[in-house]
Design goal:
190 residues, two-stranded antiparallel sheet, alpha+beta
C-alpha cells in the first residue's frame, strides 16, 4: 500500500525546466565566445616573435660587422708602411668620426674602420654586405642605422680612445631593437 500522495511522487521525478536550459546555453555561449576571442588574439599576435627575432638577427649581424673592423689611429687606407705612420696627404690622417666619403658597398673606398659606420643607415630595407642594390627578401620593411660615439672619457681615457657603437633596427610593426657595443683603440697603426 502506498501511503504517499500522488503529487509528491511527481515532483521528485520532474526534470530540468526550460529556464534552466536557457541559462545553461547562455553561460556556455559566453564561455565559448571568450575562448574564441582568446584564440583569435593568440593567432593575430603569433607572428610578432618572428618580427622581433628577425630584427634582433639583423642588429646582431650589423653590430658584429662593425665590431670586426679595425679601430686604429690611422684610417687603414692612410697608413704609410714606409713611414710607419699616417700619411700626411690631404684627407688622410688620424681616423675620426667625420663622415669621410666611404661606402659599405664600394670596392674602391670601402668602410675599413669602425668610425666609417657612423651615420650609416638602411631606410628602405636591409641590404647584404656585398650588394647595395638588392634588398634581402623578407626584410624590405625593416630599417637600420648605426651611430658611433666617442666615449673614452667615460673610462678615464682621451675621448677618441673608446667608442660606443649603437645599432638600431626597426621592424615592420614599428618595434625597435637596439644593441650596443664598445671598442677601444688597440693600436696606432693598422
Amino acid at each position: 500500500m502506498c501511503t504517499e500522495p500522488r503529487y509528491a511522487i511527481r515532483q521528485s521525478q520532474a526534470g530540468i525546466s526550460l529556464v534552466e536550459v536557457v541559462v545553461f546555453i547562455l553561460v556556455m555561449g559566453i564561455g565559448v565566445v571568450g575562448l574564441l576571442n582568446l584564440m583569435n588574439r593568440t593567432v593575430l599576435h603569433s607572428a610578432d616573435p618572428l618580427l622581433q627575432k628577425q630584427a634582433l638577427a639583423v642588429a646582431e649581424s650589423l653590430l658584429e660587422e662593425v665590431m670586426l673592423q679595425p679601430f686604429t689611429v690611422c684610417d687603414p687606407a692612410a697608413y704609410d708602411p714606409a713611414m710607419g705612420a699616417c700619411a700626411q696627404a690631404e684627407g688622410a690622417g688620424p681616423e675620426t668620426i667625420d663622415g669621410t666619403p666611404q661606402s659599405r658597398y664600394s670596392p674602391a673606398t670601402p668602410f675599413n674602420n669602425v668610425n666609417d659606420y657612423h651615420g650609416f643607415a638602411m631606410n628602405d630595407g636591409i641590404y647584404a654586405i656585398s650588394d647595395g642594390a638588392t634588398v634581402i627578401a623578407g626584410l624590405e620593411k625593416y630599417t637600420a642605422n648605426v651611430t658611433v660615439t666617442e666615449v673614452g672619457g667615460d673610462f678615464g681615457l682621451a675621448a677618441g680612445e673608446a667608442v660606443r657603437i649603437n645599432v638600431r633596427v626597426t621592424n615592420p610593426a614599428g618595434e625597435e631593437v637596439v644593441l650596443s657595443g664598445y671598442r677601444f683603440r688597440y693600436a696606432s697603426t693598422p
